Amino acid sequence: MSIVEEKVIPGGLCIGCGACAYLAPDKYHIGFDEFGMLQASADKQAQDNDAVDTACPFTSAGKDETTLAREIFGESMPGHEYVGKYLECYIGNVSAGQFREFGSSGGMGKWLLTELLSGGHVDYVVQVAAGDKAELYEYRIFDNAEAVIDGSKSAYYPVTLYEALQRIKAQPGTYAVTAVPCFAKMLRNLTETDDVLKNRIKYVAGIICGHLKSTAFAEALGWQLGVEPNDLAGIDFRGKIPNRQANDKGVIATDRSGKLSQMRSSKELFGGNWGYNFFKYKACDYCDDVIVETADIAIGDAWLPAYMKDHKGNSVVVVRNKALHDIIEAARADGRLDLTPAAPEDVVESQLGGIRHRNEGLAVRLHDSQAAGEWYPKKRVEPSDELNDARKSIYRTRVELRDQSHIAFSEAKRRGDFEHFRNEMNPLIKKLNYKPFPRKVAGFLYRKFKEML
């Protein structure tokens, strides 16, 4: 029996990437569970495929991110503990066209994909966009730049690569595929044993990732905007609000009649705080990669003090592929990109919360899994219980928030009462945010000191 069937699926560590279903379609099926997460299920009687375990990003049977990056990008490329390999890092935005206006942050993701298509560097782009079936978002394949521009910004919604992988296998050509860290790792390990995919997937464009959400995240935000879960037909998670900070994301929901809600800041919506871990996949709490270390390029939000006041947004970019580096440098030279070279430490600072959660926080979670006798995948972080009690409490409460959010929201939908969800979650939020009096005083003095500088 495969590790996927024996450990990953029963342990709730499937991320729904679709590698197993692609490799053994009679054995594995990807579908939504009761909480709105895409999960694999296995037919015990069907024939398996030995490559399933090495392709799955949560078995530990395949190569880890450090090994893959070293093999793909070479020993001589500089590396950083948290950023991984890098040719160059940048911060900035797209100055040409409307990429920045209609894209996430600085618009670099949309710009890169359209540049690859219009410049003939690839034949197809595989990216997440609004779904044309029942799902709000899904991976779709585009062969023209205009369609890419019309595609989604960041979509906090469950997706799978299963169908896209089937189409790539069936349709000759070269592809650029967007991927969060675990999907990128899967693609790299999968292409080690699949020559067709290896020859066709020319670039992996990484999306720096906090964590994946179930369908409940979209439903919860939409509900607060006046669109009930069963009437939700669309949602934009990344509207830009003038005169607000860059990380103040505007949310707009669309009902089945096509009516748009008013835009509200995610900060005003219950569950919009990423640190609360609402509707998070359990697998995400066993990931140690934030900056998509196996991708040819990684793009994320430049949430740094110097850039926070610009509501239009800026991107952090980590380039590892020489051809992509040349494309970016040419666009910088002719004024299409307003990018400034940056140190890897700047990239780390922009994603510091996620990096802490997937390093010191992961060490605590691995320790707790070990102590409970639970199976867990081997990570590049070792189990540890050495953090101070306050930090350990934060990470352990986030696990409680993660698990309880799925249950409480499901019950809220059954009752038709969003307030049930709020009431169930508030005690855990209070527990997460609790600070002993000495810490409150220290925090107050620190803030006053910063104001004086």
TrEMBL record:
Domain Coenzyme F420 hydrogenase/dehydrogenase beta subunit N-terminal: 90-165
Family annotation (InterPro entries): Co_F420_Hydgase/DH_bsu_N, FRHB/FDHB/HCAR-like, FrhB_FdhB_C
GO molecular function: oxidoreductase activity, acting on CH or CH2 groups, with an iron-sulfur protein as acceptor
Name by which UniProt lists this protein: Coenzyme F420-reducing hydrogenase, beta subunit
Record-annotated Coenzyme F420 hydrogenase/dehydrogenase beta subunit C-terminal domain positions: 174-343
